[in-house]
Amino acid sequence: MRLITLFASLACVVAVVASKLSAQENRPADAHEFSFPAIDGRTLALKAYRGKVLLIVNTASQCGYTPQYAGLQTLWQTYQDRGLVVIGIPSNDFGGQEPEHEGKILKFCQGTYGITFPLAAKQRVSGAGAHPFYQWAAEQLGSKSAPRWNFHKYLVSADGRVVAWFSSPTKPMSADITKAVEAELAAANASPIPANTAGDS
């Protein structure tokens, strides 16, 4: 009887270890494995930006931080030619401050702030139902890095690692963000990473 119990216990241990190993194998290696539905109905695949530095920001049109759109556009225009891509992720998670449909969101962003950087369709960015990128990013940097309000920012390196996060009050053109962006751009230029090719899409 003891032998049977021992074998049963060993079987349970083996099953748990195998399950953990399987989960690790299936875990995304980097941010380039994720994609979002784009605001225009196409697909916003992060692998298309391999070799670029990304600033991924959950946005809202009726928030006290909404004027940060202007700073995000300035940041994009300032560093775009050096390899930065700003990506906006509209979300209604916080305060119900992004209630409109994608067409109105796009019209607002372009008409009010002249936004030209990529925008996703509305997404969940918090809680158990968060988009997989946001779940993965919080795992990488710890639960404190998860968005707690609109205009939370994740910085992704050219090789797809999420390397920093910035809270909602941190302005896009602040020294904290621009220094971090410049450091990642310098690192990317020092060790260029091949950009995505047509065969990779």
Strand content: 5-15%
Q: Strand order of the main beta sheet, please?
A: 4-3-5-6
Overall helicity: 25-40%
Q: Give the overall shape.
A: globular
- What is the gyration radius calculated from CA atoms? 20 Å
Q: How many domain regions?
A: 1
The description of the largest β-sheet is:
4 strands, mixed
Helix count, per DSSP?
5
Can you tell me the CATH architecture? 3-Layer(aba) Sandwich
Distance between the termini: 57 Å
* SSE string: HEEEHEHHEEH
> Could you state the CATH homologous superfamily?
Glutaredoxin
CATH class: Alpha Beta
Given the helix and strand composition, which structural class is it? alpha+beta
Number of strands: 6
Instruction: Give the low-confidence spans.
Output: 12-24, 197-201
Which whole number gives the mean pLDDT? 89
Fill in the CATH topology.
Glutaredoxin
Task: Explain what the structure shows.
The structure is a single chain. This protein has one domain (31-193): Glutaredoxin (3-Layer(aba) Sandwich). Residues 12-24 and 197-201 have low confidence and may be disordered. Helix content is 37%, strand content 14%. It is an alpha+beta fold and 201 residues long. It has a 4-stranded mixed beta sheet with strand order 4-3-5-6, with helices on both faces. Strands 1-2 form a two-stranded antiparallel ribbon. The longest helix is centred in the N-terminal third of the chain and has 25 residues, at 2-26. The chain has helices at 2-26, 68-79, 102-113, 132-141, 175-190, and strands spanning 35-37, 43-45, 53-59, 84-90, 153-156, 162-166.
